User: Which sequence fits this backbone?
């Protein structure tokens, strides 16, 4: 193991250990998501760029909640009238006006809850979707880097950051700029936000499943489609939610 690899392992494990013992926002998120799912709601997961990986951890994977839907920006191309060229660069990610168009593509119900991830927490689409969800009466859970977001200027016309809009804000513990290590010449490597966000997503999922069981309810969880009976199990539960969890490939 190289010295830098060992250092990165330390940076990752130190953060994971902190997140594993977090009792504040993560526990609050578990309760809020459990309440929503128990009431028939769906988790609406959103993230752009690398933060879309967080939404993929929440929705549509083995061991995850079936009552979850991933909202990607490319849905605006698939069903929202945008062109493939619109996806190039960061224009859509920074556009504060895409939120209502995005939400109009999905069957959002009153008991749904939103989980939105963004390391910087300041791009227009991220803050815009959080504000639109709040305006519709939904709770919003944010996963963001407190260190980063407080050091950059919000890009949404409201002047707000994601953490300032959300009902519950969870720090992903990534440093400003995301990289945890420095090479000679000052180059940064060892980005950590995707790893910590995935852990947060899984800890919340586990916590929700446990809490549903404590409440006497069967947690609606995916099993791998690549094991016998997987497709049948998943399809039966997916049918309970129908188009509400259509997601996008």
Assistant:
């Amino acid at each position: 193991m190289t010295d830098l690899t060992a250092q990165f392992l330390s940076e990752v494990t130190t953060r994971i250990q902190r997140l594993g013992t977090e009792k504040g926002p993560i526990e609050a998120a578990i309760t809020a998501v459990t309440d929503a799912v128990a009431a028939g709601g769906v988790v609406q997961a959103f993230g752009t760029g690398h933060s879309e990986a967080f939404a993929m951890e929440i929705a549509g994977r083995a061991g995850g909640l079936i009552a979850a839907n991933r909202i990607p920006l490319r849905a605006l191309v698939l069903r929202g009238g945008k062109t493939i060229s619109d996806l190039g660069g960061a224009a859509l990610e920074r556009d504060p006006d895409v939120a209502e168009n995005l939400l109009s593509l999905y069957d959002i119900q009153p008991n749904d809850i939103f989980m939105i991830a963004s390391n910087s927490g300041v791009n227009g689409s991220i803050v815009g979707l959080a504000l639109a969800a709040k305006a519709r009466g939904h709770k919003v859970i944010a996963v963001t880097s407190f260190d980063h977001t407080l050091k950059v200027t919000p890009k949404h016309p409201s002047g707000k950051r994601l953490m300032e809009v959300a009902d519950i804000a969870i720090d992903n513990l990534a440093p400003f700029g995301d990289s945890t290590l420095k090479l000679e010449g000052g180059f940064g490597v060892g980005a950590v936000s995707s790893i910590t966000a995935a852990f947060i997503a899984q800890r919340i999922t586990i916590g929700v499943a446990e809490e549903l069981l404590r409440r006497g309810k069967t947690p609606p969880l995916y099993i791998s489609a690549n094991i016998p009976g997987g497709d049948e199990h998943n399809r039966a539960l997916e049918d309970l939610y129908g188009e509400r969890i259509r997601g996008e490939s």
User: Anything to note?
Assistant: Residues 193-214 form the longest helix (22 residues). The two ends are 37 Å apart (CA to CA).
